[in-house]
Amino acid sequence: MSEENELSQIFEILGGDFGHAGSVSTKVKEILKEVGIDPSIIRRAAIVAYEAEMNVVMYARKALFALTLTPGQIHFKIEDEGPGIPDIELAMQEGFSTATEEMREMGFGAGMGLPNIRKNADRFLISSLVGRGTMLSVYFFLNQESRG
Ligand SMILES: Nc1ncnc2c1ncn2[C@@H]1O[C@H](COP(=O)(O)OP(=O)(O)OP(=O)(O)O)[C@@H](O)[C@H]1O
Ligand SMILES: [Mg+2]
User: Fold this and answer.
1) Interval between CA 31 and ligand 1 midpoint (Å)
2) What is the CATH architecture of 3-141?
3) Could you tell me the pTM of the whole model?
4) Residue 136: CB partners within 8 Å, gap ≥ 6?
């Protein structure tokens, strides 16, 4: 695989910025459409990007969202500066949420974001350091016909 076949883009996400919430995942989705990724994979990737972005907006200070596209896969790396997750196993459970009343009123806080990320990814890694931040690494595998 040559480097010309690689597309990399980095986006910044700001914690607490509900006004722009969803804008990074929208851009990521547009890029995937432009390069002709299979719609069913775009659908899964868009869910993952949105849920990861919202978690940064809700819980972290800021993050970098790195998108890397190669002929074989889509890779997302979302690395935030924030409080971290003390118990990842608990956070991964459906329904677990520390969302505030305010966030719940906006429709968030079902505790389904991380479980949905795992469900929609082909490969999913999460690591976190309390007091430092959280890192998600998510892969979607492409077959030959998935790139136009
Ligand atoms: N980037 C993060 N930094 C710190 N804590 C996080 C982060 N992402 C998730 N969490 C913690 O994990 C919990 C579960 O996250 P998850 O996305 O599954 O649910 P939620 O965000 O609470 O609700 P929903 O995603 O359904 O709106 C969160 O409530 C929060 O406590
Ligand atoms: Mg969430």
Assistant:
1) 26
2) 2-Layer Sandwich (3.30)
3) 0.95
4) 52, 76, 77, 78, 79, 117, 124, 125, 126
Say yes or no: CB of residue 98 within 6 Å of ligand 1. Answer: yes
Residue 147 pLDDT greater than 80, yes or no: no
pLDDT at residue 24 in the model: 98
Q: Where are the domains of the chain?
A: 3-141
For 38-87, the pLDDT digits (tens) are 999 999 999 999 999 999 999 999 999 999 999 999 999 999 999 999 99
Give me the residue label for tokens 């995942």.
Answer: 25
| pLDDT one-digit tens code per residue, 5-25 | 899 999 999 999 999 999 999
Query: Which protein residue has the closest C-alpha to ligand 1 atom 5?
Result: 85
**For residues 133 and 116, is the Cβ–Cβ distance under 8 A?**
no
pLDDT at position 146 is 45
In ligand 1, the atom with minimum distance to the C-alpha of 134 is 1
